[in-house]
Amino acid sequence: MLEARDLMVFYENMLALNNISIKCDDNQIVGVFGANSAGKSTLMYSLSGIMLDIRKKEDMSGGERITLTGEVLFQNQNIMDLKPSLRAKAGIILCPERRRLFKESSVLENLRIGGYLATKAQAKYTLDYVMNMFPALQKLKNRLGGFLSGGEQQMVAIGRALMAQPKVLLLDEPLLGLSPLMQATLIKATKVIQEETKISIIIAEQYARPVFPIVDYAYILENGAAVMEGTGGELMDNPDVKSAYFGVS
Ligand code: ATP
Predict the structure, then answer these.
(1) Buried (b) or exposed (e) across 63-80, using 16+ Cβ within 10 A?
(2) What does DSSP assign to residue 106?
(3) Which of 9, 20, 40, 56 has most ligand 1 atoms within 8 Å of its beta carbon, as the pocket-test mutant?
(4) pLDDT by residue (tens digit) across 170-181?
(5) What is the arrangement of strands in the sheet containing 2-11, beginning at the earlier edge strand?
């Protein structure tokens, strides 16, 4: 489904991704875990193609030189040079870090904006689906994005991404800054969404602990390199992971 092979990204001479190979198969939830600055967002931008836009912007403004090497494959085709809009059209949808809602637009407008790639029928169906998945949004329909709590914003961000009809959904740090209760709600919803829609999901998180139980497979990133990988169960049993993520040795 979606795969990175030997991916390297440099910001000038700074190596942000060091020969990363990761894979998300059909119908899977894959975790990418790592501390601040491990390279999670760089990986998500490279998979969604936004890195090409960032590179272009930097080139045009005479800013920093960004270099990408390796391959990104979607359904076995190399899409390394495919622009982000076409990747989105093909079904690779990023739900970005810090949600990035349109703060001056209502919840409903934010969701509808996500549906620009969908047919009318798909948009209607998905909007109903999102409202059922996150009932809290029903009474907030007309509230502006800027006046929502972090958890509500994250629900809208996931809903907006679903409106774009993903085949693979990239969730970049969806739990950032949320309460444990809200984290649990979102993780449970992520699992249910995957089971019901069969969308593949890649979830990048610093807070691996609540996410481990729902992943089929996961990678641990350190300084831009994947230093460990395995099924959720394998990693949870690994002593190094236990001491790093669960505070036990
Ligand atoms: P966080 O949890 O803080 O978002 P992350 O795991 O997503 O971290 P990245 O944002 O991918 O990590 O950053 C990886 C490394 O690349 C970091 O050292 C970061 O400082 C650096 N970096 C990210 N973006 C740029 C940029 N535009 N220019 C230079 N260095 C960058």
Answers:
(1) eeebebebebebeeeebb
(2) B
(3) 40
(4) 999 999 999 999
(5) 14-24, 2-11, 66-74, 77-78
